[in-house]
UniProtKB/TrEMBL annotation, chains A, B:
Role summary: Catalyzes the ATP-dependent phosphorylation of thiamine-monophosphate (TMP) to form thiamine-pyrophosphate (TPP), the active form of vitamin B1.
UniProt: substrate binding residues: 56, 265, 312
Amino-acid positions noted as binding ATP in the UniProt annotation, renumbered to this chain: 125-126, 150, 214
Residues that bind Mg(2+) 2: 49, 78
Organism of origin: Nocardioides silvaticus
Annotated protein name in UniProt: Thiamine-monophosphate kinase
Catalytic activity line of the entry: thiamine phosphate + ATP = thiamine diphosphate + ADP
C-alpha cells in the first residue's frame, strides 16, 4: 500500500467502485468532500459496523474478496432488518503500509460486488494506516414502510426465522480446528448469504419486531425480548439442522443445536408476527412470545433456559 | 472497558448521546439495528473518516474530550464544504479492553458536544476491541442548494479562504517539540473551530468550487486545481499570520508561512468565486484561478512553486 500511496490507492478504489456498483440516485460519488444522494421516497435508515482483523476475521481463514463480501453483507443485513432497502455504503479502510495493495483492492472488489448484488453502490470512503486491518462500514438505505423495531413484540406473537442459521458458525468452528471442510459450511462462513429481500416482505406482512441475527440467535432473541419487555420461547424441533452440520457435530461430539442457537454469522432474520399471520415465504415459525416471567424478559428453549454449548467460541 | 462489557458500554454511550445531542428528525435513534431519519428537504450528503491513535492523535497530546471534538469537527466540516448542513453522525469505536471506560465515555461526550454545537445528533455506532484506539465517523447532512464540488473552479475566479489557517499546525508543531505553549495554538490543535456556517453561505454567494482544508492548504488547493483542470496561485501577503505563530516561528527559526500553507488541522474552507463576487463576511481573498500551464494544473505561491517548509511533519 505504501507504494501506491494514499491518493493512488483512493484512485484505484474509486475506479473499482464505479465499475462494479455505481449505485442509483448518486448525484456526487466518491472523490469529493462528501457524496450527494437523492432520496426519492421514505425515510433514511443508517447503520455502522467496525470489522477488525483478528477479531472479526483472519486473513488465513478468508481471502480479501470474501472479507469484503462479509463486511458489506453484515451491514446491508441491518437495513434489511428494519424493513428497509440498502442503497449506499461508505467504507473506511486502515491497514499496515506493508499490506499488498492487491489485498486492499480485492477487498474493495468483494465489498462492491456484495453491494451490487442488492443494487447498492459504494459512495465514499477513507484510507489510512494502522497496525491491524480495520474496516469501517456505514450503510444508508431507505424505508418506505414503518420501520420494524426490536421493541414491538407482543405476548402471543409467533417467532419466525428466515435464512440459514448455524451454517456459518459451523464453518467458523471447522476453521478454528484447523480444517477446511465441509466446504459448504466454510463457504457459508466466508461469504454469508443473508435473506436480503425478507425484511421488507416481513414488514409488509405485519412483523411486530425484527432483528438481524449477528450476535447469535439466543443473544439476539434476548435483545428483542428485553427491548419489547416480553419473554421468548424457541422450539428446538422447529430448526432444520443441515446435514453437514450434523456431520461436523457427529465427528466432534458437539451438539449441532449449539451452532444453530449460538451462531450469528449467517445474518438470518428473526421476527415476531401476530398469531395467525400467514408467514411470508421462506419464513419458518420457531417459537412463541409470552408475557415476561417474575424475573423479567427471558429467552428459553423448549420452555427451559438453554444450558448447552452454543458452538465453539470465536477467536 | 472490559469491565463494562460491549453492551454495558453501548448503554452508557447511548445515554450520553441522548442527553447531549438527541438530534432532530431522528425517528429511531441508537439501539436498534439501524437509525431512521426524516429528510425534510434537499439531498442527503454523506462523508466518512477513520481516526487512528498514533496517526491522527496521541493520548498524551489531547484528552479524550478533545479527541471527540476533533473527530466530529473534521467530519462536520466535510458537509460544510459541500454547502450542506450536518445533521446526524455515527461513531464506531475500537479500543484495547484495558482502556479505561472513562476515556471512551469522555470521547463520546466531546463528540456529542461538538455535534450539538451545530444542531446535529449522534444516531448510531459500534463498539469493538482493537490494539489501538480507532474511531470511525460517518456524518450525514442535507444540502438544499446545489452542492459545491471541487471541480467547478474556472480560470479568472478568485480564491478565498474562511477560518483560521496555520494555528492548529503551529500547535501540533509545539506539541511535537515537547512544549505546551503558546496555549492558544495548542488549544487550536486540540479543539479546532471550523467555520461551520461558512459553507452554506459561500454556496449561496455563488462559490464555484469548495474544499475543507484537511490535507494542508497547498495540498487541498491542488485537489481543487486537478479536479477543476485549472491552476491556482496563492498570494502570500494575503494571509494574516497570527501573533503566536510569529512567536513560535521566531523562536524556532521556522517560516511562519509554512504553517499556513501546510496546515490542515484547522478545517478552514477554501473556495473559488467568480471574479467580482462580493465575498461573504469572514471570507478573505487569497489568490486567483488561471488556466493550467503546459504541465497541467498546478498550485503556485506568488507565481512560483512553493519551495519552503510546510511546517513540522506529523508524528
Amino acid at each position: 500500500m505504501a507504494d501506491l500511496g494514499e491518493f493512488g490507492l483512493i484512485d484505484r478504489v474509486a475506479a473499482i467502485v464505479r465499475e462494479v456498483a455505481p449505485g442509483e440516485d448518486v448525484l456526487v460519488g466518491p472523490g469529493d468532500d462528501a457524496a450527494v444522494l437523492r432520496v426519492r421516497k421514505g425515510h433514511v435508515v443508517v447503520s455502522t459496523d467496525l470489522v477488525v482483523e483478528g477479531r472479526h476475521f483472519r486473513t488465513d481463514w478468508a481471502d480479501a474478496v470474501d472479507v469484503g463480501h462479509r463486511a458489506a453483507a453484515q451491514n446491508i443485513s441491518d437495513i434489511n432488518a428494519m424493513g428497509g432497502r440498502a442503497l449506499w455504503l461508505t467504507v473506511g479502510f486502515a491497514a499496515p503500509p506493508t499490506l499488498p495493495a492487491r489485498w486492499a483492492l480485492d477487498l474493495v472488489r468483494g465489498f462492491a460486488e456484495e453491494c451490487a448484488s442488492v443494487g447498492a453502490g459504494v459512495v465514499g470512503g477513507d484510507v489510512t494506516s494502522a497496525d491491524k486491518i480495520t474496516i469501517a462500514v456505514t450503510v444508508l438505505g431507505v424505508c418506505t414502510v414503518s420501520p420494524v423495531l426490536r421493541s414491538g413484540a407482543q405476548a402471543g406473537d409467533v417467532v419466525a426465522l428466515c435464512g440459514r442459521q448455524g451454517w456459518a458458525a459451523g464453518g467458523l468452528g471447522v476453521l478454528g480446528r484447523g480444517f477446511r471442510s465441509p466446504r459448504v459450511l466454510v463457504d457459508a462462513y466466508r461469504r454469508p448469504e443473508p435473506p436480503y429481500d425478507a425484511g421488507g416482505v416481513a414488514a409488509e406482512a405485519g412483523a411486530t419486531a425484527m432483528i438481524d441475527v449477528s450476535d447469535g440467535l439466543l443473544a439476539d432473541a434476548a435483545h428483542v425480548a428485553r427491548a419489547s419487555g416480553v419473554s421468548i420461547d424457541l422450539r428446538s424441533a422447529s430448526f432444520e439442522i443441515p446435514e453437514p452440520l450434523l456431520a461436523v457435530a457427529g465427528a466432534t461430539g458437539a451438539d449441532p443445536l449449539g451452532f444453530v442457537l449460538g451462531g450469528g454469522e449467517d445474518h438470518s432474520l428473526l421476527a415476531t408476527f401476530p398469531a395467525g399471520t400467514a408467514l411470508p415465504e421462506a419464513w419458518t415459525e420457531v417459537g412463541v412470545v409470552a408475557a415476561p416471567g417474575p424475573d423479567g424478559p427471558a429467552v428459553t428453549v423448549d420452555g427451559a433456559p438453554y444450558e448447552g454449548s452454543t458452538g465453539w467460541t470465536h477467536f
